[in-house]
Please model this.
Amino acid sequence: MTEYFETCSKKGRGMAQRSLDLIEAMRTEAKAAQPITGRGIGYKLFAAGLIPSIRDGKIIKGPSAMCGAAKNVHGHHKDYAQPLKVAWLCAKCHQRIHAAFPELGANTMTTKAETGIGGTGHMPLNIKEAMMMAENPKVKVVPDDTAPDMANEQNGQAKPNPFAPESLRLDLNVAEGLGVKKVVATIPVRKPGNQDFVRVHPSPDFRLPVALIELKDDREVYLVRPHIARDIPGEYFAATMYTAINRAGVVFLWHVRLPGTDGRQLTWHTSAAEAAEAAMKGWVRVKADMSLGAYVWWEASSTIPEPTWPKDLTFERMLEIAFKNGRLVESLDHPVLKQLRGEA
Model:
């Protein structure tokens, strides 16, 4: 019975205990000399113990010990007082066992005449094998993960705290060994933040003069193909697109306006270009000075390590990511141009 109680759920143990008490009372009433009889009593104990154990995965059904069938398998009990001591039999073999040897268990389902010996598709009943099977029933018990905890409680030991720091400590050497790769899915098109120290990629392959349309209310920048820009004078502006990065490793495209078609150079534009040139050589912080009417910048006073540029991210790929989702103007019917013409 110890094995039974250790492999059943708490609810199953309670129901089984009540059934055992009932059986004990009936034993006393029957003067303890007669075997326990009646399917009702046995089935109650069977339902309280074996069924929950099978349902919870603590006991695994096996094939029929007589014919090897794997479907519609029953648990045959020699003694219902030991509900987990069963031999697996298919329905037909189970009926034939009880019909041929009612003394093996009182749960007689059919008579010998009704079932016959050696029915269709089944092996003839081997009396010796049946007797051995009933005397030494087989059951596969799956270890219960809660058994150690139950044993600790029974021995008076406290259950381990699942939040104990040592049980949660991560081995950083293992974590560092996990191969991870940062995926750049978004590249902003913007100016440097007022409080950011930034660097600009020094290679000419990572900067480009382009035509842009900026919707300031929407804070959106559109890249315009040159042949479209020629047809929309006054709607776009020329700018140099620089590849920049901040100390947090965020890559972004910094657009600095170029002189207009009239050749005028505004202090805002020239100072921004000078700051970008300085950022190719060292870390700088750029800020707009409204009273001066220009951008000012500061160089880092301490030594900051060189930036780590994404090795597998080309400038072409950066443009593709930055201007995805319809922000590349390739025709005069583009929604942003319709909006500027008042057509949308």
Q: What stands out?
A: The chain has 13 helices and twelve strands. The longest strand covers residues 237-246. Residues 211 and 226 are 7 Å apart (CA to CA). Residues 2-141 form one domain.
